[in-house]
Amino acid sequence: MRKSLFYKVILLVFITFSFMGCVLDEDIDPNTDDPQAIFIGKWSVSDNETKVNYEVEIKRNPSNSTEVLIQNFAGSNSTATALVTGKTLTLTSPVIGNNWQISGSGVYKTSSRIDFTYSLTIGGNRENRFALFTR
Questions:
Q1: For the domain 41-134, what is the CATH code?
Q2: Interacting residues of 26 by C-beta distance below 8 A, sequence separation 6+
Q3: What ranges do the domains of the chain cover?
Q4: Which of 28, 49, 61, 113 is most buried, with most CB under 10 Å away?
Q5: Beta-bridge mates of residue 56
Q6: 3-state secondary structure of 71
Q7: pLDDT tens track for 111-122
Q8: What is the C-alpha R_g of the chain?
Q9: pTM metric for this prediction
Q10: Of 101, 104, 106, which is closest to residue 126 (Cα–Cα)?
C-alpha cells in the first residue's frame, strides 16, 4: 500500500511540473533581427484622456528603415512618423493633420500591448495623453 501511495505522489508531482512547463511566453518577438516587426499591424487604441477609441495601423516607412508610419495617430486621420529604437517608438513628426502638434513615445510591453504617452496641441490648447494600443 505504501508503494502505491508513493507512486501516486510521484505521478502527481510529474503531472504538475509538466503543466507548468507548457505556459506560453506572451512576449515572444516575431523577428529579433527586425526591430520594426513587433510594431507592424493594426492596433485598437483606447485614448484615456478623451475616452475615445479608434484604430491605427503601423507600417514600415519605405523612405527610412529606422522609422514606422502610424496611420490615424490620435484619431486624426493623419499619419505620424516614429523612430524605432529597441522596444520604443519616438514620434519624429512634430505636426500632423490640420496643424496638430505632437510629441511623445510608446513602449512595446507585449505582443498585444503598447503604452503610448504623448502630448497633443490643437489651436494652442495642449493636452497630455495616455493611449493604450492593443491587438
A1: 2.40.128.420
A2: 110, 111, 112
A3: 41-134
A4: 61
A5: 43
A6: strand
A7: 999 999 999 999
A8: 22
A9: 0.76
A10: 101
